[in-house]
Design brief:
Helix content is about 45%, strand content about 10%. With about 290 residues, it is an alpha/beta fold. It has an 8-stranded parallel barrel, surrounded by 8 helices. Helix 2 packs across helix 4 (about 55-70), helix 5 (about 85-95) runs parallel beside helix 6 (about 125-140) and helix 7 (about 160-170) crosses helix 8. It is globular, with a radius of gyration of 21 Å. Bound molecules: sulfopyruvate and magnesium ion.
């Protein structure tokens, strides 16, 4: 299912960020057809910085909660793979076991730093990173969509370096290329796409160039747009507003209509299914 979405040049697909079971369930209910298990959002929800402070096992456990909570395919942001080829293939194997549909690996060095902050983004050696991709491919074969993410534009190395790396990663067996840019317009990313000519399908993350209309991505025959952090940021804004209000008013009377009713939470988490299961499986209460 994810392969059809990410690897299609025909129809633009959208992956929504999820960082836990609840955010995954909400995205599914809104109609998204696939999820992005965001490193930034998962780390933030755990109280960590997106700098490989969360361990690979914590990532795998978060992904398991996301996978278990919906029927949607999940593309996992695996950062650089938490080390060399061996760490990357171990991560891939465990993610596959927990039901992930795809893995995105970026050509950064361990420990990484989130692409949208700071100026220090050292790139991995091309051959070394290609080895990580080949090791993952040899380990999980066709069972996990492998997205190779290029950080060359983030690191300020320009278009030629990005294209050179994309060809190397295609040769190494990647199924799709994620080209990341943190410019406020889509120009840099679109220059890459023009030059690349869809040798492999292209995935983008329009967090900083959010003003660009989606029609521009369709025109450029991009395969997949990742809305990478919007559930986490929406939750942060809502929690801040509500906490500020409760402090200021020393009470919760005025906020009730601004928060999700408990009935919505019970519905999202399918308490009705549990009630039915109790009828079916629970012993009748002992009359004595
Ligand atoms: C993420 O969602 O963790 C990403 C995208 O990798 S970004 O934060 O832009 O690096
Ligand atoms: Mg990330």
């Amino acid at each position: 299912m994810l392969r059809a979405q990410v690897c299609s040049n025909g129809e633009l697909s959208f992956l929504m960020e999820a960082h836990d079971g609840l955010s995954a369930r909400i995205a599914e209910r809104s109609g998204f057809k696939g999820l992005w298990a965001s490193g930034l959002s998962i780390a933030s929800s755990l109280g960590y910085r997106d700098a490989n402070e969360a361990s690979w096992t914590q990532l795998v456990e978060s992904v398991e909660r996301i996978v278990d909570s919906t029927a949607l395919p999940v593309l996992v942001d695996g950062d650089g793979g938490f080390g060399n080829f061996n760490n990357a293939r171990l991560l891939a194997r465990k993610l596959r076991q927990r039901g992930a549909a795809g893995l995105s690996l970026e050509d950064s060095c361990f420990p990484k730093m989130n692409s949208l902050i700071g100026e220090r983004h050292p790139l991995a050696d091309i051959d070394e990173f290609s080895g990580r991709l080949r090791a993952v491919k040899d380990t999980v074969a066709e069972n996990l969509v492998l997205v190779a993410r290029i950080e060359a534009l983030i690191a300020g190395h320009g278009l030629n370096e990005a294209i050179f790396r994309a060809h190397a990663y295609a040769d190494a067996g990647a199924d799709a290329i994620l080209i990341h840019s943190r410019k406020s317009t889509a120009d840099e990313m679109l220059s890459f796409v023009g030059e690349w000519r869809n040798r492999l399908p292209v995935v983008i993350v329009p967090t900083t160039y959010y003003r660009t209309p989606v029609s521009a991505y369709r025109d450029a025959r991009i395969s997949t747009v990742v809305w990478a952090n919007h559930a986490m940021r929406a939750a942060a804004a809502a929690m801040r507003r509500i906490c500020d209000s409760i402090v200021a008013q020393e009470g919760v009377a005025s906020i009730e209509s601004h928060i999700a009713p408990l009935s919505e939470i019970f519905e999202l988490l399918r308490y009705d299914e549990l009630a039915l299961a109790e009828k079916r499986y629970l012993q009748p209460a002992n009359p004595w």
